[in-house]
Design goal:
The protein is mainly alpha-helical and 456 residues long. It contains 20 helices and two strands. Helix 1 packs across helix 7.
């Protein structure tokens, strides 16, 4: 596709910037506050120090995200914008917002770097073709995905950093540099452990020799082992990052076997691993990339289809949804499906994250500073379709979309000769629909609810 209109780029930039300044979730604020301990000299006692001023449930991440935010916050410390006291103490409202936007810029840079890597990846995929637009096509398919936009610019989370490392790993995978692929996938699990569900089956698909498997797994474990060694002697590390137990979520859907419970999620995932180990594929880069995109789609569909998820986690899922859509002849249909999937996603989010999404996100953005609310802000969840429907209906619609992606994106449905890297107006219009319908729906409803006059 070589006809991205200037108007499309302007509208995309305008709507995305509107989201950047209008919405903010509290999790990133917590990470900013916690990471300021690093700029004040608390490294090896980072967790122990923060436990003296914050509850353990807030300090739930591995050190990597705090290190990135600590380094990003260093210029603020050097130029006296923040002091040795807790970062937001004594801040005016506008100073508070400027600090938040500064840190949000950090994750936005990772969003942009992910786009650059996708462009380079598209160029590698396009090496044997005459079209010159494949890189831009791939960027458009991934970076305009509504759930990814939601996670980065509306819910304002840090998961895009993990996505960046996975994208970089896939770039090296295309170049058959397996050691770097394994190492970068290892970096990705220092942010969230979920990429394990993708890495293991893909490794089993690509490598069959036991010694090679062991070698790559050891490389994969180097980054997280490094952090474990650094902080193992810290009691706070054990009370926070290592006690953030999500294992119970794996048993959300399970079968009682009379003695204990069998997790459906683990049952399906183990089957995926076994299938990958028994499957032999052509090792040409294009074929490997197709299978990587599909395994990511299936693995994360399995993970999030059988457990309760938080909205930002799905950033990982939609990366692979977008990659596999890009490689599929049913591009237009899947882009339209993504748009309606976003509608189900919005319904689930506003009904489950009652106090952490909805118009709450606008109350920590620019509009709350410009137009202070003296009354309780209305909720999207109380509007029309969302109010009169049960959440189980929306989960059923969302999970059916996951299933459709798993079935109709199998590489048997598309081979290398069927990949289309050509100008296609219907595909471009479907991309427009997915972005404007998916993102626009949430933005319009949020603004409507936020500025609606109080009842009575």
């Amino acid at each position: 596709m070589n006809s991205y209109k200037k108007l499309d780029l302007i509208l995309f930039a305008a709507l995305t910037l509107l989201c950047f300044f209008s919405f903010q979730h509290g999790d990133q604020i917590d990470i900013i506050r916690l990471s300021s301990a690093l700029t004040n000299g608390h490294f090896f006692d980072f967790y122990d120090f923060n436990l003296t001023i914050e509850p353990a449930r807030i300090i739930g991440y591995f050190p990597s995200i705090y290190v990135i935010f600590g380094l990003w916050g260093l210029p603020l410390k050097l130029f006296g914008v923040i002091s040795d006291s807790p970062i937001f103490v004594g801040c005016s409202e506008w100073r508070f917002l400027l600090i938040i936007w500064y840190f949000k810029l950090c994750t936005t840079i990772f969003y942009g770097l992910t786009g650059y890597l996708l462009y380079k990846t598209g160029k590698l995929l396009n090496a044997s073709r005459t079209s010159s637009s494949t890189g831009f096509d791939l960027v458009a398919f991934v970076l305009t995905q509504p759930i990814l936009i939601f996670g980065q610019f509306i819910f304002s989370q840090t998961d895009i950093i993990g996505v960046f490392f996975i994208t970089l790993a896939l770039y090296f995978l295309l170049q058959k540099r397996m050691i770097l692929f394994s190492l970068l996938m290892g970096f990705s699990i220092t942010f969230k452990l979920f990429p394990i569900f993708f890495y293991i089956p893909l490794l089993l698909l690509l490598e069959k020799k036991p010694l090679q498997l062991i070698k790559h797994v050891l490389v994969f474990l180097i980054p997280i082992s490094f952090f474990f060694l650094l902080f193992w002697s810290s009691p706070g590390f054990h009370q926070t990052a290592l006690s953030n137990d999500n294992v119970g979520r794996l048993y959300t859907v399970s079968i009682n076997n009379g003695i204990d419970k069998t997790s459906i999620l683990l049952l399906v995932w183990f089957f995926i691993c076994g299938y990958c180990y028994l499957k032999n594929i052509d090792k040409k880069p294009e074929q490997v990339f197709q299978w990587a995109a599909y395994i990511g789609t299936v693995a994360f569909s399995c993970l999030f289809g059988f457990m309760f998820w938080h909205p930002q986690w799905l950033t990982l899922l939609v990366l692979f949804f977008s990659l596999s859509t890009f490689l599929n002849p049913l591009r237009r249909e899947f882009l339209i499906l993504d748009g309606f999937m976003m509608l189900a996603f919005i319904a689930i989010v506003v009904k489950t994250e009652v106090h952490a999404s909805d118009t709450y996100l606008m109350q920590q953005g620019i509009w709350s500073a410009l137009f202070p609310r003296t009354h309780e802000v209305h909720k999207i969840a109380r509007f029309g379709l969302f109010y009169f429907t049960k959440i189980d209906l929306w989960y059923a619609l969302f999970n059916s979309a996951l299933l459709l992606n798993c079935v109709f994106k199998h590489p048997n449905y598309h081979t290398a000769k069927k990949l289309l890297f050509t100008d296609n107006l219907s595909t471009l219009n479907s991309l427009r629909f997915r972005y404007y319908f998916g993102v626009g729906t949430y933005v319009v409803l949020s603004f409507f609810a936020f500025f609606l006059p109080p009842r009575g």
